[in-house]
Structures are given as C-alpha cells and as structure tokens.
Amino acid sequence: MPPSPLGGPLGRRLILACALLTTAATANAVLVVTSRIVFAMARDRFRPIRLAAVSARTGTPGAAVVANGLLMGTMAALGTVTASAAPGGFLYVLHFVPPLVALVALRRRFPGDRPAFATPAPRLVLPLAFAASAVLVVASGRTGFALGTAWLLTGRAIRARPRRLP
C-alpha cells in the first residue's frame, strides 16, 4: 500500500472511511429519489402500474424501491465505475439541453413578452451553457455515449409499448 501524502496511514484511513460513508449516503439518496420518480411515472402510466403500488402500512412505494435497488445492485455487480459513471454523466448533462432549447425557442417566439425571470447576459450565458453541455457530453466518452444512448433507447422502447388504460 503506497503511503498517503496527506496525514500518513491515519489520514488514508480517515479519507477511506469518509469516502465509504458519503458513498453509502449518496446511494441511499439516489435510491429514494429514483424510486419516487419511478413511482410517479408509474402512477401517471409512463411505467408499469405495478411500480405505483404503495404499502398500506408505511405509505412507501415498495415495488419502485425494490425495482430500483435491484437495478442499482445489478449495475454495481456487473459494471465497472466507468460503466456506471459515464452514462450517468452523459444522461445528467443531456437532461439540461431540452430546457435550454425551450428557453431559446420561447424567447424567440415571444420576443416582446416580459419573461417571468431574466437570464443574465443571455448572449453570453446561453452559448456558454450549450458549449459546456457539449463539452461534458463529449467528456463522457464513447462508453458514456453508447451506454447512455442504450438507456434512452430502452426507455423509449418501454414507453412505446401499448398500454392498457383503466
């Protein structure tokens, strides 16, 4: 084990302990948030309705929590950090692009309207936002692009399946 330049062996152990605790806390937060998103999408019939089931005792969307936990566990067991982080980064950055496009389109479509909020220095900020998004999408690499696109196409295929309405 190479020596740690920051605090020696004790510093190394403290950093490792902090990393493990923050990783566990982040995983827990991601599980809670993604489960609620899946629950809401299922409730609105954008995902299988079974994922909208709520426990009568606790009021939690148990099926959505279990499904997301299994998915996260599968990614952790089968994937590498790159296989998880690269598409996650790709998709995270990509989700900022549609609101940017909508902002530009709405401002062009209704140029005389007073917007609810003002973009500071829009001729500078908006091109920088698009450029930064492009740089970050490219930085996710081939793995991020390929796996992120696969996730998008999988979601699209699931969404395209005929749904039975109640």
Describe the structure.
There is one protein chain. The chain has helices at 8-43, 62-78, 81-94, 97-109, 122-139, 141-160. The mean pLDDT is 85. Helix 1 packs across helix 2, helix 3 (81-94) runs antiparallel to helix 5 (122-139) and helix 3 (81-94) crosses helix 6 (141-160). The protein folds into two domains: 1-78, no CATH class; 79-166, no CATH class. It is extended and about 60 Å long. The chain is mostly helical and 166 residues long. The longest helix has 36 residues, at 8-43.
Short description, anyone?
This protein is mostly helical. It is built from six helices and no strands.
- Percentage beta strand: under 5%
Compute the number of helices. Answer: 6
Instruction: Write down the oligomeric state.
Output: single chain
Sequence stretches where pLDDT stays below 50 over 5 or more residues: none
Number of domains: 2
Distance between the termini: 60 Å
Number of strands: 0
**Principal-axes shape call:** extended
What average pLDDT do the residues reach?
Answer: 85
Give the proportion of residues in helices. over 70%
Structural class: mainly alpha
Radius of gyration from CA coordinates: 21 Å
The arrangement of helices and strands along the chain is HHHHHH
What are the defining features of this structure?
single chain, extended, mainly alpha, 2 domains, 166 residues
Helices, strands, pairings?
Layout lengths: L7 H36 L18 H17 L2 H14 L2 H13 L12 H18 L1 H20 L6
Helix pairs in contact: 1-2, 3-5, 3-6
